[in-house]
């Protein structure tokens, strides 16, 4: 084995090890911070965590007592920051960390409906969009696309979204691009009878977003 090649192997091993330590520390911080903010927002009576792949994320089941809301499930998935070789491919495919929540009220939700943030990333795939009516609306300073199968589903999503983003039609368009909300997609999950939410787990912004959604669901009426 030549000396230059051996030197390259040693340097690559050192960089990979340092990158692993940095990525492990960073993902651990994100996981701990997001879990703490979720617990502060929901104040659960009981919780059960399951780690995903050690450094990739976790699943958690919260038992809460918030009016009509009695259970929230969350899944955090993070970029593999500890893997120097896999991280670039994961970033191209997934772009960012993600936090998925399923709010389960006492009375199961029915119908079909999606509220999708526009102008910030690619839109999620929606099953059978041809069966849904579509309209665009402004909440706060942001544009959303509302897809719904019934007036009741549309009214429910509008009410929940106004808790999260501000009243419909409020907030004139600003000359500078406003900071994107962390909540990117809300939908009525008919199979689960629950409200699904996808958000970007930005530290310091998870708690207020989840608090507003939980407050809206605590007195949910479809």
Give a structural overview.
With 222 residues, the chain is an alpha+beta fold. The chain has one domain. It has helices at residues 3-42, 87-94, 151-165, 206-218, and strands at residues 46-52, 57-66, 69-77, 98-105, 113-117, 133-139, 142-148, 183-189, 194-199. Strands 1-2-3-4-9-8-5-7-6 form a 9-stranded antiparallel beta sheet, with helices on one face. Helix 1 packs parallel to helix 4 and helix 3 packs across helix 4. It starts with a helix and ends with a helix.
Biggest β-sheet: strands ordered side by side in the sheet: 1-2-3-4-9-8-5-7-6
Question: Element order, helices and strands?
Answer: HEEEHEEEEHEEH
Which structural class is indicated by helix and strand composition? Answer: alpha+beta
Q: Give the proportion of residues in helices.
A: 25-40%
What integer value in Å does the Rg equal? 20 Å
Number of helices: 4
**Mean pLDDT rating:** 80
């Amino acid at each position: 084995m030549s000396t230059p090649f051996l030197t390259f192997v040693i340097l690559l091993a050192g960089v990979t090890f340092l990158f692993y330590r940095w990525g492990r520390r960073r993902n651990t911080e994100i996981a701990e911070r997001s879990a703490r903010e979720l617990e502060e927002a929901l104040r659960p009576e009981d919780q059960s965590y399951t780690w995903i792949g050690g450094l990739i994320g976790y699943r958690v089941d919260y038992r809460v007592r918030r009016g009509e809301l009695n259970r929230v499930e969350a899944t955090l998935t993070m970029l593999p920051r500890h893997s120097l070789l896999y991280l670039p491919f994961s970033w191209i495919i997934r772009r960012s960390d993600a936090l998925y929540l399923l709010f389960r009220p006492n009375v199961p939700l029915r119908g079909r409906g999606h509220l999708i943030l526009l102008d910030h990333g690619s839109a999620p795939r929606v099953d059978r969009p041809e069966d849904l009516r579509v309209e665009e609306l402004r909440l706060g300073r942001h544009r959303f696309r509302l897809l719904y199968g019934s007036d009741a589903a549309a009214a429910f999503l509008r009410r929940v979204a106004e808790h999260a983003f501000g009243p419909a039609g409020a907030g004139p368009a600003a000359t500078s691009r406003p900071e994107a909300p962390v909540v990117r997609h809300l939908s009525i999950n008919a199979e689960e009878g629950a409200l699904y939410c996808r958000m970007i787990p930005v530290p310091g912004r998870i708690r207020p977003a989840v608090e507003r959604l939980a407050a809206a669901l605590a007195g949910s009426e479809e």
